């Protein structure tokens, strides 16, 4: 049995006192959706929270494949805000035509369940934002496919026994009142930037044929991270403040393999808040550079001689 | 040579020397093996990594973003936010008698996390926040530590802590997930870093003594588990936290075995250490890219993850940690287990 005693306190010495258990015996992990009401009206926004419960075990990798009734529901967005997944192998992909959503992510060090006394429900993987469309069948369904997997945090890549629980609800035609769009409200209210992060430059023989690449990673605790943009600015672009941004992900293969450009990475959340990180690579001179410097100095010498000769 | 010529020559020389020096030794950035970073320069008008702001560059932050209702945020000389011109909304006036609510300076309570627990005496500790290194500190001479993380926004975080013992062996990361509430300091105590474990040799002849050793909190009792038929042996840590168990391999069958350990310090029980393999009898080949350290730098972080992603769905001896012929979710799981940030 994996047993650790954790005491948990929220400011001002409010003592909750918790005994925290981490047994090693393999039990089921559960992927489920919450909260989903019984009825929605056409035009409603449905926010389906994808959550993970573990019992008596720790897990560290999740592959979630979801399917939904594509005729009744339109998946308009996926929010990674407040997700316990911090490393994403596959960012959430919405395929409306197929009625499918999938993602793969991980928790470094593992997730051993919600701690008793935790003031929040810290088991959220992500939130899918659906728009209820015309009521063709009168019922909306969201569920997990059999290809979903959760892996134990055991250093061996062992699959956890997995249970899943989807959601089904009725869709009604009549709109009885002017409803609020909760997701739109959240986007309006989110003024907090993604978490600070840093860029690192690497060169590894195992990938990108040994070329230079950068790594970066951050999270956003509110509406969630949307995308990254990368800019490599040469001297000219830096002087004239020309910034050409392009979407990219970590690892990002650098265009400027001579490492002369200032590198900027922008993390943008769903509400459009931007957090920027920059790095100026350390210039490592090559023998060709020495020749250029010498030519430059010789040129200066010639100019000086010419000035002297004219006088 | 005339004075004016000398002056021109001197100016050109200084210019050339400066350009040459600037070309070879840029003032920004300093080298860290294969990576590099721009040093924060307070006062250059650009907010950099360790600064909250710099001059007019507030990094997009506003009074509202800091929890105030109105006002203009500015940047202090120390490149930290100056919220003195930010204000909370005037307090609701009771029966019209209030008045004078404008200009009320509101200082929002700090949001932070305090982590307290036990590791090994003077052990270097690395704290991870959502997989990224958030702090590097040291346990005291008794192995106790108290780490305070400030400048944190509200939300759910997975924190991880790992330690390095006196021999440089890393512990397993102890991790937990918790929601941090705005305006509160969340204290988590009772953390007990699992012991480190090491072997005197990986291959032994039957009957030879195999030393299983490591470090934990001083005076702890250590349970050493040996598999495949589970045997549990006891070891006691000394005042430095060092523990050792000399295993007589006479009673074990020839073949592969594993071992791991956990500690008990006055009733506080740790999670298990890493699992190590040893072999009695014929030798076994050394593992390739052991413990998901794909680039061999002793750390498991975003670089190793990049390598894993690069080979995702393909065969690669190094990234394929479970040797099933393809780099997949199981290999990613192994990497998450050994993650050091």
Automatic annotation (TrEMBL), chain B:
InterPro entries: Big_6, Dockerin_dom_sf, EF_Hand_1_Ca_BS, Ig-like_fold. One of its GO terms (biological process) is polysaccharide catabolic process. Residues 111-178 form the Bacterial Ig domain. It comes from the Bacteria. Gene3D superfamilies: Dockerin domain, Immunoglobulins. It holds the Pfam family Big_6. This is Bacterial Ig domain-containing protein. It comes from Candidatus Portnoybacteria bacterium CG_4_9_14_3_um_filter_43_11. The lineage of its organism: Bacteria, Candidatus Portnoyibacteriota.
């Amino acid at each position: 049995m994996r047993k650790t005693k954790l005491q948990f306190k929220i400011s001002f010495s409010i003592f909750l006192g918790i005994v925290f258990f981490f047994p090693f015996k393999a039990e089921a992990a559960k992927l489920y959706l919450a909260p989903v009401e019984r009825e929605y009206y056409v035009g409603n926004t449905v926010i389906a929270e994808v959550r993970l419960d573990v019992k008596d075990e720790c897990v560290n990798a999740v592959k979630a494949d979801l399917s939904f009734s594509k005729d009744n529901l339109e998946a308009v967005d996926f929010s990674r805000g407040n997700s316990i997944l911090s490393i994403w192998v596959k960012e959430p992909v919405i395929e409306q035509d197929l009625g499918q959503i999938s993602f793969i992510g991980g928790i470094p060090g593992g997730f051993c369940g919600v701690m008793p006394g935790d003031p929040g429900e810290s088991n959220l993987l992500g939130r899918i934002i659906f728009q209820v469309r015309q009521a063709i069948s009168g019922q909306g369904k969201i569920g997990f496919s059999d290809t979903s997997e959760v892996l134990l945090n055991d250093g061996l890549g062992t699959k956890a026994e997995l249970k899943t629980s989807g959601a089904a609800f009725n869709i009604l035609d009549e709109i009885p009142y002017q409803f609020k769009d909760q997701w739109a409200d959240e986007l309006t209210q989110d003024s907090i930037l993604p978490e600070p992060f840093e860029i690192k430059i690497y060169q590894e023989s195992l990938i990108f044929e040994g070329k230079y690449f950068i790594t970066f990673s951050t999270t956003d605790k509110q509406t969630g991270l949307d995308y990254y943009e990368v800019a490599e600015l040469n001297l000219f672009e830096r002087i004239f403040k020309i910034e050409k941004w392009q979407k990219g992900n970590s690892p990002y293969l650098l265009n400027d393999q001579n490492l002369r450009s200032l590198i900027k990475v922008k993390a943008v959340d769903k509400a459009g808040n931007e957090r920027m990180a920059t790095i100026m690579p350390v210039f490592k001179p090559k023998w060709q550079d020495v020749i250029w410097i010498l030519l430059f100095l010789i040129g200066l010498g010639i100019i000086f001689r010419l000035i002297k000769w004219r006088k | 040579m005339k004075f004016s010529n000398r002056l021109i020559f001197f100016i050109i020389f200084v210019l050339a020397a400066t350009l040459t020096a600037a070309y070879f030794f840029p003032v920004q950035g300093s080298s860290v093996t294969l990576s590099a970073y721009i040093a924060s320069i307070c006062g250059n008008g650009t907010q950099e990594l360790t600064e909250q702001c710099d001059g007019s560059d507030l990094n997009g932050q506003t009074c509202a973003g800091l929890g105030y209702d109105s006002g203009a945020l500015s940047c202090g000389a120390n490149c930290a936010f100056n919220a003195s011109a930010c204000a909370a909304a005037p307090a609701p006036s009771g029966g019209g008698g209030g008045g004078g609510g404008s200009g009320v300076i509101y200082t929002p309570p700090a949001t932070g996390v305090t982590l307290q627990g036990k590791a090994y005496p003077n052990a270097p500790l690395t704290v991870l926040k959502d997989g990224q290194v958030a702090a590097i500190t040291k346990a005291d001479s008794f192995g106790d530590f108290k780490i305070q993380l400030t400048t944190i926004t509200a939300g759910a975080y997975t924190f991880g802590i790992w330690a390095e013992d006196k021999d440089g062996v890393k512990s397993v990361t102890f991790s937990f997930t918790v929601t941090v509430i705005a305006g509160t300091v969340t204290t988590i105590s009772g953390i007990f870093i699992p012991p480190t474990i090491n072997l005197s040799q990986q291959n032994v002849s039957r009957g030879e003594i195999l030393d299983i050793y490591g470090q934990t909190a001083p005076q702890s009792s250590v349970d050493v588990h040996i598999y495949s038929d589970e045997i549990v042996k006891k070891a006691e840590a000394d005042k430095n936290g060092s523990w050792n168990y000399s295993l007589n391999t006479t009673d074990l069958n020839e073949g592969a075995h594993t071992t791991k350990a956990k500690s008990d310090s006055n009733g506080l029980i740790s999670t298990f250490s890493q699992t190590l393999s040893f072999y009695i009898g014929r030798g076994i080949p050394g593992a390739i890219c052991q413990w998901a350290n794909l680039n061999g730098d002793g750390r498991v972080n975003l670089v190793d993850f990049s390598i894993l992603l690069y080979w995702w769905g393909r065969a690669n001896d190094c990234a394929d940690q479970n040797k099933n012929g393809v780099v997949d979710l199981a290999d990613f799981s192994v990497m998450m287990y050994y993650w050091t940030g």
